[in-house]
TrEMBL record, chain A:
This is UPK3B protein. It comes from Dicrurus megarhynchus. Keywords: Membrane, Transmembrane, Transmembrane helix. Coiled coil: none annotated. The chain crosses the membrane at residues 172-194.
TrEMBL record, chain B:
Heterodimer with uroplakin-3A (UPK3A) or uroplakin-3B (UPK3B). It comes from the Eukaryota. This is Tetraspanin. GO terms for cellular component: membrane. It is a multi-pass membrane protein. It holds the Pfam family Tetraspanin. The chain crosses the membrane at residues 12-37, 57-80, 87-109, 228-250. Belongs to the tetraspanin (TM4SF) family. It is found in: Membrane. Keywords: Membrane, Transmembrane, Transmembrane helix. The keyword Kinase does not apply. PANTHER family: TESTIS-SPECIFIC EXPRESSED PROTEIN 55, UROPLAKIN-1B.
Length: 252, 255
């Protein structure tokens, strides 16, 4: 019987640094398992990533050899697959290893149906659990623990965006109210002036002058004249109704 | 009376001065509105798509400005000649212009208020890269957005995560694994290619543009709307005072 694979305490996880594309709708990123397999790996071994649906991780069985590795195309039925086959030397402490692994970045292999380990995009939001598996010539040699469930992003329809603003800004209210009141004042003033002028022109017979100010008759040194008769129909009370000049009212 | 003559002359002088200011402001309003209508920032396709014609206020402003200029000249002549008929015509035409300018101000202010980020976000998601070859306005829309993102080094309305949080017309033709967000969101080199495509797809800081374009859109739109609304409001306040003075002057003139 092949020796059972060693269980390493390492837990795969998302990269700690701030990356906007850490988790998208069909891909996710993992921190590379640096130094994890040192001491267990030979030069010819390979590190695989096993990806399974979170509820299928318990039933996942490590493949006996490279030929038994579940392929990407089987994911919908087998509920798991293995991918990202990398030489173990790439993750050793002495080598500069890739800091971040992206699961699901290869769209070409999905379409072409190649039989090589395919790192195709994930078909559903998951959640998924992953673990690293060190495979030697005679089968699995070491494995890490399963990761926490990774849930991919779900996009919503833009129809849920409500573009209507909740309330108008105070600026609009200020402008509208002040302008409306100005307009009302102007309209009232025009109507008032026109009305006053109409009533005034009904009272006046003839004054004969066309200048703005020459309306006072009282500064000439002439003998007092007989009082002028009041035109019928014009009561001139209250004072100032027939004239709009600020001078004291002369008799009609 | 000498004193009344002085008062009349002072009032005439004030009214002439008031009309000169109105005339100059009218020219300034026309110039400003022509500038806005000429689409200096290339944002008009975006605004047109929101079915919210903020340009209407600018168009009204152009004609109101010219009307104010013409009426101010009429007003100056009418005040100097102290002719009741001319002044009455002036007052009535000014009131009509006042009403139009009021409409323009309130339109500009209201439309500006309705241009929230959500409006642009929804439009962008529904129309950017929408593949309808027969529809020219969508191509123009896409080109405007591409220009906007290139020139301002921004992505989406609020950020690249707009493309992740919502489905879009872009997502229908570009798969998520290769295009978490459009290529224009990546930092590009001199040839227009992404400096690091993997870095851009992963969202590594420095290889993609992380700000949203809303600030780049709302800046010019705000200037446009407030330029029309508040400048128009200021002109109207001044015009109100001049009109009151003119009416007082008119009512004092006898035939």
């Amino acid at each position: 019987l092949p020796a059972p694979s060693a269980r390493l305490p390492y837990v795969p996880h998302l990269p700690p640094m701030a990356l906007l594309g850490k988790v998208t709708a069909t891909t996710f990123a993992l921190e590379g398992p640096r130094c994890v397999f040192d001491g267990h790996a030979d030069a010819s071994d390979a590190v695989w990533l096993a990806v399974a649906f979170a509820n299928a991780s318990a039933t996942f069985r490590n493949p006996r050899s490279r030929a038994d590795v579940p392929r990407y195309k089987q994911l919908p039925t087998a509920r798991s697959y293995m991918t990202l086959e990398t030489a173990a030397a790439a993750y050793s402490c002495s080598a500069p290893s890739p800091p971040v692994l992206r699961v699901g970045s290869d769209t070409a292999c999905r379409d072409q149906g190649r039989q090589d380990p395919c790192n195709g995009p994930l078909p559903s939001p998951g959640p998924y659990r992953v673990k690293f598996l060190l495979m030697g010539c005679r089968g699995p040699k070491a494995e890490t623990r399963w990761s926490e469930p990774i849930l991919l992003r779900r996009a919503v329809s833009p129809g849920t965006i409500d573009p209507v603003p909740t309330r108008h800004g105070s600026d609009v209210v200020v402008i509208a109210s002040i302008l409306a009141s100005l307009g009302a004042v102007l309209a009232t003033a025009v109507l008032g002036a026109l009305g006053a002028k109409l009533r005034g022109s009904l009272c006046h017979q003839d004054l004969g002058t066309d200048a703005f100010t020459r309306r006072s008759y009282r500064t000439h040194h002439i003998p007092p004249a007989l009082p002028q008769p009041v035109p019928p129909g014009c009561r001139c009370s209250p004072p100032g109704l027939c004239r709009s000049s600020p001078q004291p009212p002369a008799p009609c | 009376m000498a004193k009344s003559d002085d008062c009349v002359h002072i009032l005439q002088g004030l009214l002439v001065f008031g009309n000169v200011v109105i005339g100059m402001c009218g020219i300034a309003l026309t110039a400003e509105c022509i500038y806005f209508v000429s689409n200096p920032h290339g944002l008009y396709p975006l605004l047109k798509a929101t079915e919210n014609d903020i340009n209407a206020a600018a168009w009204i402003g152009i004609f109101v400005g010219l009307a104010l200029f013409a009426l101010s000249i009429l007003g100056i002549i009418a005040v100097i000649k102290a002719s009741r008929t001319l002044l009455l015509v002036y007052i009535i035409l000014m009131l009509i212009t006042f009403a139009f300018e009021m409409a323009s101000c309130i339109t500009a202010a209201t439309h500006r208020d309705s241009l929230t980020p959500s409006v642009f976000l929804k439009q962008m998601l529904e129309r950017y890269q929408k593949s309808e070859p027969a529809n020219n306005s969508n191509n123009e829309f896409t080109k405007t957005w591409d220009e906007l993102m290139l020139q301002n080094h921004c992505c989406g309305v609020l950020g690249p995560s707009d493309w992740q949080e919502y489905t879009s017309a872009f997502r229908l033709t570009h798969n998520d694994a290769d295009y978490p967000w459009p290529r224009k969101c990546c930092v590009l080199d001199a040839q227009g290619l992404p400096v690091s495509l993997d870095g851009c797809k992963l969202g590594v800081p420095g290889y993609y543009n992380s700000n949203g374009c809303y600030d780049a859109i709302s800046g010019p739109v705000n200037t446009h709307a407030w330029g029309v609304a508040w400048f128009g409001f200021a002109i109207l306040c001044w015009t109100f005072c001049v009109l009151l003075g003119t009416m007082f002057y008119w009512s004092g003139i006898e035939y």
